[in-house]
Design a protein that fits this description.
The chain contains eleven helices and ten strands. It has a single domain, classed as TIM Barrel (Alpha-Beta Barrel). Strands 1, 2, 3, 4, 5, 6, 7, 8, 9 and 10 form a ten-stranded mixed sheet that branches. This is Phosphatidylinositol-specific phospholipase C X domain-containing protein.
Length: 337
Amino acid sequence: MGADLDFYYFYAFVEIQMSANGKGKRGVTRYSDWMMQLPPELHNIPLFNLAIPGSHDSMSYDLDSSSSIIEPDSLKKFSRLCCVRKTLLKWAATQEDTITKQLDAGVRYFDLRIARKPHDTNPTRLYFYHGLYTRTDVESVLKMINDWAERHPREIIILALSHFKGFDQKTELHNHLISFIKTLFGTKVVLRGVTPTLRSCWDQGTNVIVSYDYPAIHDSYMWSKISYFYGDSMKIARVESVLSEHHYFARDPTGFFVCGLNLTLPDDARICLYVLRLCDSFANVVRRSLPRLLLWVKQQGSRKPNIVASDLAGREDFVSAVIQYNYYLLLSASIPL
């Protein structure tokens, strides 16, 4: 099958071939355990070459409307106005499902942006953020993820920690967070510098990969920044154009690579064109745009999208479209299911 084969045909072909082999939709019966249900032919290929569903701004379902505004800069001065915070909440919440529900739905990559509140009485307490701080602190959420990882030892979870707003180059905060992560996940962590496969992770009893986007940190437990490409626009055509360009020219076959289907609000006064739509919300915009963006994923042929991150990532149509891509790759290589 050529890379330019129309998605209607190759996805139909996948479904027909799976049905002919007695699989049908039984290829993956539970999205909470989809990795362990993949065909044996996929167990020994690098995780860099698997199609993996991910979520963008994964903790934004938990944003606190009483929080001060920490971005964008153009709205910070309105932090004391409740109506502005609530409006920002409608447009900053890119996810609706809890972290556990996202995991159960099949999401395996998490975009986790970390911040410290400037006047917190606890010097090491951290939160996630996206425009506003979250209500739940970082350590509590990581414990939830660890509990889930223990119940699903054959599902590989990728945590991308980044931004670290309010750390102000305080090495002690980074050291505290890394020490907590190493103690919490322990031997479940996939060490940096290896080429992980499903089989190698299962054999070694590891199922958590931690990417830590802070160049000054050099630790065998912490992977470096994972490349994340996105359109930086609310216009679907622009998102598709940028992602297509990076698929051709920027993909590193020896590492993880994220295609972000997410839409992005302007960080200047143009943001008002969206947030002043009183009867609309970011979630509604995503619901209208995601079907077309999923077409882009399905049209990529042999270009191997690896991690595909989205807003509203818990939606079954998103998760199933990404997971299904793994079966297409098998069929395109003439490997029997």
